Amino acid sequence: MLSAFARCACAAVVCLLLLGASPSPSPVAAVDPKIEALAKAWIMHLETGTVDRSQLSARSNAIATPAFLKESAKQFGSMGPLTAFSFRGRQSVIGPHTHQRYTVYTFLATFKRGRFDWQMALDEHGKIGSLLIAPYVQHFHLSERPLIAALRTKLQQDSAAGRFSGAALLAKDGVPVFEQAYGLADRAKKIPNTLNTRFRLGSMNKMFTAVAVMQLVQAGKIDLQKPFGTYLPDYPNKELASKATIHELLTHTGGTGDFFGPQFDKHRLQLRTLDDYVKLYGKRGFVSPQGAYQYSNYGYILLGVVIEKVSGQSYYDYVREHVYDPAGMTSTGSQPEDQTVPGRSIGYTGEPGKEHPNTGTLPYRGTSAGGGYSTVGDLLRFANALQANKLLDAAHTRLLLTGKVDMPSLPDNPRRYAYGFADQRINGIRCFGHDGGAPGMSGDLDICPGPGYVIAVLANIDPPAADQISGFVMNRLPLK
Q1: Is 206 helix (H, G, I), strand (E, B) or coil?
Q2: How many helices and strands in the chain, by DSSP H and E?
Q3: Backbone angles phi, psi at 369, to 5 degrees
Q4: pLDDT one-digit tens code per residue, 222-245
Q5: Is the pTM of this model over 0.90?
Q6: Which end of the chain lies in a sparser environment, N or C, as judged by fewer CB atoms within 10 Å?
Q7: Cis amide bond preceding 464, omega within 30
């Protein structure tokens, strides 16, 4: 999913309850002094590793383990004393785990050795649901040559420190100006990652699914404003099918929720087709309020099923023939895990130095919601084909990529979700794309048409490995 801290390439994150992404505060004139005092006090609590658990929600209490508090004290201790603390704004969000409404307060905390945005989420009972730090990014622009030099140094440092293993590509006007691979694709066999290594994508497949849906919209076979039940008349939950529209599924506003959890873990290897997911989850109704942005992997499963019913092809055949082939993406796909895919990396998850293969977490096969594989070169080909209107006509390409609903965002990085793409502005530059992350996989594609750059990063270790690299680049891109 689109992560809060990934977009600003943060080095340290303290989070008692991840709300899905860090919200962008709406500026207000002032904040209740008691709220400000509470937020400031919790910096001291975490700095010393001692907390007042009566102020935490039940979920946050469970997460605030001794190991967590020890790591928090270490992170804060490296910053030095707090020298300034100022209110930046607040926003109301819905937490994905509890579906409760939270008010998120954002402050700028300045220390002797740095500063960051400090965000505190309070639930409806005034209990702390999350505490999140995200470094306050100093934006600046570099010309291309210094940017490439800085990127090369960043990748070398992160690779040496175990923070990156994968491949990174930076292109200008469709042509790579930097591309390099780091680390091992298979640690047991000492096989290195290369530019041809196929990395798992996580949620990045949603871009391909959205393009496929829009192709069928362009052909007059799908109406964005029609409920998805129009195309799936046998869907088990009639209320959901008759109300949640294709537009809402594409923008994560259909209330369809996620599929990860105990049921998925139990049936992970039995979920072999998109219809298998519908059989398991199709009876449930709305999981979150319809019309409210709530990231939904299951919604994109439903879009894949719609593609199959409307096109008469399997989802996999359709995207191969209508997305991958026209774009020249010869190394992209979603073959099952029990089939040998040449050059597909093994993902490694866990603490640095203690990583292990992510085999036990993988679905049987990637889906329309995510889990396929690709290379950084194929992602560039996809970006080039999209911008050249080879996959959709110009009008439908604009419709695909234009932001439609507000997303939780970091300050100074406003984001809106389009159809399968995040439409954001970083350092004055508009970029669109999607990231992906799960145990042992991290990826990001960002297309910035103004200055003509494309950033593709794929990694075979835990998030936010790829997002840290793409965020580093986007905050330094030349203006032209």
Answers
A1: helix
A2: 15, 18
A3: -95, -20
A4: 999 999 999 999 999 999 999 999
A5: no
A6: C
A7: yes
* Nearest CA-CA partner of 37 in 135, 132, 107, 124: 107
**φ, ψ dihedrals at 169, nearest 5°:** -140, 135
What token pair was written down for 57? 């929600």
Q: Which residues contact 394 (CB under 8 A, 6 or more apart)?
A: none
* Residue listed under structure tokens 């866990």: 350
Helix (H, G, I), strand (E, B) or coil at 207: helix
In a 3-state reduction of DSSP, which class is residue 463? coil
Candidates 245, 244, 252, 242; CA nearest to 292 is: 252
Residues 35-80: pLDDT tens digits? 999 988 888 887 777 778 888 877 677 666 776 677 677 767 777 7
Cα of first residue to Cα of last residue in the chain, in angstroms, is 30
Query: Which tokens hold the place of 24?
Result: 């962008």
Lookup result for tokens 């995200």: 134
Please give the structure tokens belonging to residue 340: 């040998």
Outline where 122-268 has alpha helix (H).
Answer: 144-160, 205-218, 238-243, 246-250, 262-267
C-alpha span between 266 and 385 (Å, rounded): 39
* Helix 394-401 with 205-218: angle, nearest 10 deg: 140
